[in-house]
Design a protein that fits this description.
Three copies of one chain form a homotrimer. Chain A has about 160 residues and is of the alpha+beta class. In chain A, about 25% of the residues lie in helices and about 45% in strands. In chain A, strands 1, 2, 3, 4, 5, 6 and 7 form a seven-stranded mixed β-sheet that branches. In chain A, a hairpin with a 5-residue loop joins β5 and β6. The longest helix of chain A is centred in the N-terminal third of the chain and has 17 residues. Chain A starts with 5 loop residues before the first helix and ends in a 13-residue tail after the last strand.
């Protein structure tokens, strides 16, 4: 059994996270988060200005589950899909119980019978909770580069 | 000499595979496959429906060589090029002789004197054959997210 | 403390390099280069033809600093930003003092109040100088796939 470095553990986590979304296994998405967590989607402009309010916000895993239920009910996922391509993660800070990372992302949006487009680019600003060899997101701020992000977006980033 | 994990071996393979295509070293492309193999390009819609027929299909390395010869004869590569950007590979299953992986991809198409476009996104569904420290593709199903993929595509994905 | 392979060191370097640019920490960008270095941006067409002249060229770290000063003075960065997504690096050759690599890149350009576009794709052709566990770029030729690259580009790639 290979012994994984923290860097590798983070990469494997990020890979599994985007595979979950892009494979439409959205019901499993909240399991990447700690029960008490912060998930927020914002713009680089707001993030730099220190504005907390984002396009999307949740602070418990239960809220993330509610979000997916609403999304399934609205049937949004049937007409479109995402494809995330991530860059490597930068480990910014770490101690025995948590690690802070930044990971660049690019998301393409696939709409059936339409052309595939560059939907969003940006950075995940993450704080992971370390529990043995398991990682959980304590905090994920999805900072989108553009301010022209679709505010009706429903699928998690 | 560094000892590589299976995960690293797969990453190195994938990196070499797309470098081969994007550097126009297409004659070396079939060498990434086992002699008896399956290479297929299909859409997510067909893949979910379990339809075997794809946009492109081959089941021997010799067929892959034929494909490249035809492509060179048609001179397709002169006017366009691809740039693959891959995400990290997910190891889905493995035993002593093979490993099953999924790897997300994004391909940009560069046409000289024209604007670069987002050509395709999707996932490689792979089965690798393990021979010592060498990997060979026993099976690669290229599942494109969009159904609007150019069916005249000639360059391997 | 984890012991990093050369491959991992290169990946960490590349990740830090693009994070520096995309986070607008441009004053730190020259520090990724050796004092005597070659930084050049060119097209695949010119690169294949062996043409040295590129869209941008510098052969000392001091010239790179000058470039950033000019850029800050022109205030270019206020209106746009880049997002680099890199593929894995291929180690082409190495000895005790240097390593030669190729790394594919995709750059999105974010212009506020406008749509995000696919700005450039290509390959970094690098020669790194090894100094203990520290890497420095002795040479980076940024080879852009398309010949239609914006020649007024100011932000480093």
């Amino acid at each position: 059994m290979e012994k994984l470095s923290l860097r590798e553990q983070v990469q494997i986590f990020q890979t599994a996270y985007v595979r979950c979304i892009d494979s439409n296994m959205l019901e499993q998405w909240p399991d990447f988060f700690a029960e008490q967590c912060l998930y927020s989607v914002t713009t680089a402009e707001n993030f730099r200005a220190g504005l907390a309010a984002g396009l999307m916000w949740a602070n418990t895993r239960a809220m993330l589950h509610d979000r997916i239920s609403a999304l399934r009910h609205a049937n949004v996922y049937e007409r479109q899909a995402y494809r995330h391509i991530l860059g490597q993660s930068s480990l910014i800070a770490q101690d025995d119980v948590q690690v802070q990372c930044e990971t660049p992302f690019l998301v393409a949006r696939i709409v059936q019978e339409d052309v595939t487009s560059l939907f969003a680019t940006g950075v995940y600003h993450d704080v992971f909770e370390l529990k043995g060899d398991k990682l959980l997101l304590r905090k994920r701020i999805v900072v989108c580069d553009s301010s022209r992000i679709d505010t009706l977006l429903a699928i998690p980033l």
